[in-house]
Amino acid sequence: MFGRWRLVLVLAAAAVAATPAAATAAGVAYPDADFSEAFISSPSDAGDATLHADILRPKGSKNTDKTPVILSIGPYFNHSGQTGPAGPAENTQYDPIGPNAGPSERFQDFVEGSGLLKKGYTFVMVDLRGFGGSNGCLDWAGPGEQSDVVNAVNWAASQPWSTGRVGMYGKSYDALTGLIGVDKRPQGLSAVVSQEPVYDDYRYLYGDGMRRENSTATPALYDGIAATPGPVMDDPNYNQNALNDPACLAQNFAAQAGDDDHDSAFWKLRNLIPGATGSDVPLFVTQGLTENNTVGDGLQEFLENHTGYERGWLGPWEHVRGNDKCADGDPSTGCDSSNIGRLKDGRAGWFDEVMRFYGRFLKDETPTVADPPFAVQTNDGKWRSEAQWPPADVQTFTTPLKDGSYDDTAQSVGTAYASNSGDPADSTVQSGVWTVSKPLPYDVHLSGEPVGSVDVTTTIPNANLVIDVYDLSKDKDDNWTGPLVTRQGHLVRDAGDSTIPLTLWSADWKFKAGDRIGVRVTDNNQDWWLIAAPSAQSVTVRGGSITLPFLANNRGQTIQGDPGVQLENYLETHIATAPADAVDSASDFTLPPALKENAPKDSAYSGGFTEAVGGGAIAPPPKGRCKDVRKFKFRVHQPRHGRIVRVTVYVNGKRVKRVRGRRVTHVTLKRPKLGVYKVKIVALSARGTRIVSTRTFRGCKKGRAHTHVHRHRHGHKR
User: What's the predicted TM-score (pTM) here?
Assistant: First the structure.
């Protein structure tokens, strides 16, 4: 076992007897709850721990009154405050003395705003190992903390007052633990709500080798939170149980700050994207697509791997909860005295939608109100419904990138907002090699993750490379200026000729007719990769390509929701001006055909969803001829390296067919039943390459479902 250690305040805590303050505090913060605490055993190959839990049961309930459990587990439930002494800087409370003795108020807004206790749920908050009232070594969502998630869910499902069904709820770090639950699928876990999570811990600190400020600031912050004891006046058992070895903190910092290799064993264990493969745990995710914190880096990859039921809210907002509103003195972008009380993401009804989601999967309740599968806000501030994300009709189009060179000073920035001058034509904003389209002949709608490939030549190792995508329109001075749509960075580790692949952040963006698409290859976006080290060399760009995902069909239908509060400011300040010579040498981009108009309102793309003012109703079965939508072919091309050895078919998250064999060519699905169906095909090659294809379609007739997997018997592989 580890030696006992924590900040010196803990010495005083051991001498303080328990007082009635716990009951009083719980009664004030949670008037509908009976509050208690528990300790949970969490064995793990990474070391055993004992976890502390705050439990809120419906007031007056007995052990025989069984309820589903909604659980949140993370580093922020310390009774002295969510982020320890960093509280003032992090805009959270910090009370090292007391008399606060729990429960944590982190999700008081959710517990009281949703009325979950009155609706017959129990809410449990669990400290991850090393935080709050839990002992053990923190390990940044590694094997120890992953065991904590599994053990906490198993504990919640097995309590005498539990029905055995558990949901998870969280935002940011405790949204990440929700995704761990999705990956690990512990017995009893039936639904996860994950707001603004991290999908791959490495990407929160690095851009494929390029350092964010987070690479040192994040482990330091969580070391500080872990080192913070509970209030002096808390129950002595709370602080005594949380004593830890100070070596834990040094180990945590060194492991994160000292390892910039995405492929290292440390980071592979903390990449949650592969673990989502085949998971059927229902998931409700939110993601700001213009985030200033966790961003949508890995969102699409995670959803493509996940096979279960999915819901989501996506759009241009910062690191916010679904219910967050502007408050007096709020530092959030877009919040000022004119919009106090305005929802930060712009859409009403967060708690109602979440509780209908939980009701469906934790209580088998049939919803009487229709909710959009994915509610998506675009850069025009309008909301729409999508049956899935990325949408089913996305098609990709590839355009060559121009050659040139840039100096790797690591001083370039992505937008005027990040420049010292505030000028979108600042040299730090314009630097790099630009490829600019001619004015678009019609509207196009980007939706999903763009993919870049850049051919470079370097003379020494460790050159910085960033790719930015902009939406450019002519400003009052006849310059082509516009907002940043998406980006990605990569460290070119080897000298010589290299081809660098980059998967950019998820985006959903409308480009208007007459606008231009700008793609910039440069040395840095210092506003993001703040402490990337310059290689001080000239980097030769020998060309490359950008592949952009566009919708095939126009989305004419809108749903309830206003623009997020950040959007107006983002469009005005997060901008860049393309150099005049790049505009003068504009290229013909490979574009999709013009968006198809007049798609039916109950089309498969919206998930058969229609919404009236105040919430909407269950959409009726689709009408009309459905012959074409009852049969789909998913062609499974043989990869360049390694034959296909297994094809698995999922329908609405359930596996319906698995076929092993090297000669699979395509899958035909006949699904004539009423309803909307999400079908996912996962093909696995002998070398471990996964090929994923997803479609959504409607069935219009009663009958049995059929799935056919076809194989070549003769001829070449396809």
Answer: 0.84
